[in-house]
Amino acid sequence: MYFLSSFLVAASTLAFAPSAGINYIPDPEPIPLPIVRTAEEVKPIPNPAATEKEVECNCWNLLKKRFGSTPSMEEMQAQASEAFGNVGVFMYPPSPGFPNGTPHVSLTTGKMGYGTFEIEEYNYHRCKYSKRYVSFTDKRFVGFINL
Questions:
Q1: Residue ranges per domain, the chain?
Q2: Which helix (H) or strand (E) is 131 found in, with range?
Q3: Which of 17, 70, 128, 136 is most buried, most CB within 10 Å of its CB?
Q4: Distance CA 111, CA 28 (A)
């Protein structure tokens, strides 16, 4: 048994040990092949500014999706009143794009709690659809309109 195990160790050492005087040259790093595309295969990189204003990244798009023809944000801000309607209108603090305040609109669901009403909206959480309850006395709440 001792002879067999010694033979296996010696054989494995010989199999992996480099021979004296022989220099091994490592394989060079492979060069990636270029990808060649025809003109119709080239995919354009989307414009980040345009993507930012698409679908759930703009609260106004939820109203447009639900009602089709929708007034401008300025018109909705001007028409907002205390009478309960199907659209909630808000004004958030100024931002670089909106130095006079950031307008926001949402759909009311008809559900109410004690001093609150539920809304569904796009872009309250950056580029996402969400639902939440809002107080009738929220300082950012402007009023309601009906579409």
A1: 51-145
A2: strand 129-135
A3: 70
A4: 68
Phi-psi region of 40 (alpha: psi -120 to 50; beta: other; left: phi over 0): alpha
For residue 130, list its beta bridge partners: 121
How deeply is 54 buried, as exposed, middle or buried, from its count of CB atoms within 10 A (0-12, 13-18, 19+)? exposed
Q: How far apart are the C-alpha atoms of 97 and 112, rounded to whole Å? A: 33
The backbone torsions φ and ψ at residue 49, rounded to the nearest 5 degrees and listed phi first, read: -65, -40
Above 70 in pLDDT, residue 100? yes
**Residue 105 class from Cβ within 10 Å (0-12 exposed, 13-18 middle, 19+ buried)?**
buried
The span from the CA of 21 to the CA of 18, in Å, is: 9
The label of the residue with tokens 């950056």 reads 126
Query: Which residue is listed with tokens 């130095």?
Result: 99
Tokens 């790093």, residue located? 29
pLDDT tens digits, one per residue of 4-31: 444 444 444 445 555 566 666 666 666 6
